[in-house]
Amino acid sequence: MGNKAEKCYDPKDSTLVFVDEKAEKCYDPKDSTLVFVDVDDLDYCYEEFKSLKAKMSCGHGVTPSSLTNWCRRLLNEGSSSFSCGTCGAKWPYVEVRKMALLTLEEREEFEKTMAFNAAKDGLECKTCPQCNSSVARKDESNLCVVCRMCSITKYQRYEFCWQCLREWKGSRPRSDRCDNEGCTCVALDTLRTCKEIVFESLEGVSGCPSIRACPTCGRLLEHSSKKCKNLVCPRCTVEFCFVCLKITKECLKTSRHYEPCSSGVAPRQTSIPKWRNK
């Protein structure tokens, strides 16, 4: 029995640095860039975090943990940006990253989810990674975007990638990716790698992806029903067939709701439709 004894570090070993994986993130009281306050306005669950409380740009107080929890909730609800839960003021990601004391793992989690949510919603404006101003893209076929605000203040042309939100590298124009390492289209990767769905009422139908881009507006949708093959897009309100990707009224000309499509299963999409909302 003695052979099964667990090996343990000596708590008196001064050469070791012990860590607590559940330790709460706390502000440095000597950080002169922070304005400390008495109230945590985001501690909605009354967890009473031990960290000092600091003021956000909107004036409301937070702790690193309460801010992390609130921003993760926004991301889980589908948001691609951050705002105060008390006054609704917008927070730039660089501020959230600093004030939440995000770890490397949390930054990767947040940035991946932000990119996915932005692609899912088909946003036409994004935030410049340098000055945090809102920038619209005129040419949807070109990922290289110019920030006029930065170009004016820096007295030189500043370009960033619409996809990975980093300073542009490589030739231009480009529609697939820039030369920054890891630049990839999250939406297209999702369409390419998502699992397949099995329709209980469509015998013989296989190979249909579980996530499709709406053929009208491009919003990414996941089929939650295994019975009816049709789905109504919550953004453009157009009903389409998840199997053949035709508008429902066109699909119904040759097949019924619970029948295989005459044209078969449409292949995985390799581009995101652009919605012209007039």
Helix content: 10-25%
Structural class: alpha+beta
Number of helices: 6
Number of domains: 3
Average pLDDT, rounded to a whole number, is: 84
N- to C-terminal distance: 76 Å
Strand content: 5-15%
Low-confidence stretches: none
Q: Which shape, going by the Cα principal axes? A: globular
Q: The biggest beta sheet, please?
A: 3 strands, antiparallel
| Strand neighbour order, sheet with most strands | 1-2-3
Count of β-strands: 15
Radius of gyration: 24 Å
Write the H/E string, N to C: EEEHEEHHEEEHEHEEEEEEH
Write the layout of secondary structure elements.
Elements (H helix, E strand, L loop, with lengths): L35 E2 L15 E3 L5 E2 L1 H13 L5 E2 L6 E2 L1 H7 L4 H18 L3 E3 L6 E3 L7 E3 L1 H6 L5 E3 L24 H8 L2 E2 L10 E2 L1 E3 L6 E3 L7 E3 L6 E3 L6 H4 L27
Antiparallel strand pairs: 1-2, 2-3, 4-5, 6-7, 8-9, 10-11, 12-13, 14-15
Protein name: Putative E3 ubiquitin-protein ligase ARI6
Keywords: Metal-binding, Repeat, Transferase, Ubl conjugation pathway, Zinc, Zinc-finger
GO molecular function, one term: zinc ion binding
Please explain how this structure is put together.
Helices cover 20% and strands 14% of the residues. Strands 1-2-3 form a 3-stranded antiparallel sheet. It has helices spanning 64-76, 93-99, 104-121, 148-153, 186-193, 248-251; strands at residues 36-37, 53-55, 61-62, 82-83, 90-91, 125-127, 134-136, 144-146, 159-161, 196-197, 208-209, 211-213, 220-222, 230-232, 239-241. It is globular and about 70 Å long. The chain has 6 helices and 15 strands. It comes from Salarias fasciatus.
